[in-house]
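Quick one, tokens below. Sequence please?
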């Protein structure tokens, strides 16, 4: 059979079209096989791309929420571990109180017991003041304080020819007032509630148009000064001849909130309270706490005092037990939360894979 010229041309066009179609299909198949994805660009499946991206956002949110919960457990374990030692100290204090209640002890014996009680009380306070996770104090009753607007030491306030450029109270106790005093190069910051103070020497500080931070790390307060003036003028301005500047912190929250969901919101957060566990809060109430009963080595110099202290220590032990129980319950809840988040992430990942990933049998 002899093909006419138009028929031969049509055959060639058809062959060329089929070749291009096959080449395009092979290219797409190779793209999918090499990337492992069914959807490499929006044109592959516009609706599927939109759905899978939304799923990816949720999956990554679930994975991060799981990490948040794990960090929360670490934070709780830090506080609970410190309280374990506080419990041990309180048990020793109770043992000493029972010992001091016995009339076989002389006055010197009771003073020796009192000396140990004072040291144990100081250690309880040290644990309360220094236990921290990622810079956040856990057992001093406050996790995040901010400066009140009524504080006179604030950004923009002049110190001679210099200015306060920043005030950081992130490590300070909540609802407190701090005052400055200056003498011969020594700048002192004092917390008014308990007269706790820290002194730093600024005599040789460089305020020559540099940014200099005056850090009172023990009290959790730092002042950043910018400008050119002498240390004496800057310290004197903070001191103000006894009527100087103050730093005032807000009434802080003793709770931490952990985001344990992928979308945020109140229904996806867990609030855990970290109460103050110092000698001024452990006991049976104001005027009857450890700090009230143990101020010096005469705390158990009589049988009556020793017996009264037993009841105070019992109340302190109960309070620490209650806090540890609360933290343990939160930790157990977070364990289940992590399992649920990981399961949800796994199932959602499988669903996203069915949309986004290539089926090698079909693509080949």
């Amino acid at each position: 059979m002899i093909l006419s010229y138009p028929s031969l041309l049509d055959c060639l066009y058809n062959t060329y079209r089929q070749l291009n179609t096959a080449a395009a299909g092979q290219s797409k198949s190779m793209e999918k096989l090499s990337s492992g994805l069914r959807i490499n660009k929006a044109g592959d499946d516009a609706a599927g791309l939109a759905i899978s991206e939304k799923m990816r956002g949720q999956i990554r949110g679930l994975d991060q929420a799981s990490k948040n919960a794990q960090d929360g457990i670490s934070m709780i374990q830090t506080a609970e571990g410190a309280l374990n030692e506080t419990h041990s100290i309180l048990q020793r204090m109770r043992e000493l109180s029972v010992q001091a209640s016995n009339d076989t002890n002389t006055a010197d014996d009771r003073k020796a017991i009192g000396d140990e009680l004072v040291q144990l009380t100081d250690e309880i306070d040290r644990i309360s003041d220094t236990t921290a996770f990622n810079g956040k104090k856990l057992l001093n009753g406050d996790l995040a304080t901010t400066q009140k607007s009524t504080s006179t030491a604030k950004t923009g306030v002049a110190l001679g020819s210099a200015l306060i450029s920043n005030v950081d109270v992130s490590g300070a106790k909540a609802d407190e007032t701090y005052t400055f005093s200056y003498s011969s190069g020594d700048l002192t910051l004092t917390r008014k509630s308990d007269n706790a103070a820290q002194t730093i020497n600024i005599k040789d500080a460089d305020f020559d148009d540099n940014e200099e931070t005056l850090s009172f790390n023990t009290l959790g307060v730092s002042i950043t000064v910018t400008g050119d003036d002498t240390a004496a003028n800057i310290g004197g301005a903070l001191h103000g001849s006894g009527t100087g500047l103050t730093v005032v912190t807000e009434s802080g929250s003793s709770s931490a909130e952990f985001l344990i969901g992928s979308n945020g919101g109140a229904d996806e957060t867990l609030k855990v309270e970290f109460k103050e566990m110092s000698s001024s809060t452990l006991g049976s109430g104001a005027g009857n706490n450890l700090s009230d009963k143990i101020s010096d080595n005469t705390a158990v110099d009589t049988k009556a005092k020793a017996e009264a202290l037993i009841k105070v220590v019992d109340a302190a032990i109960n309070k620490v037990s209650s806090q540890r129980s609360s933290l343990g319950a939160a930790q157990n809840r977070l364990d289940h939360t992590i399992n649920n988040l990981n399961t949800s992430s796994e199932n959602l990942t499988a669903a996203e894979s069915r949309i986004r990933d290539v089926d090698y049998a079909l693509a080949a």
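The chain is about 50% helix and 15% strand. The first strand starts at residue 132 and ends at 133.
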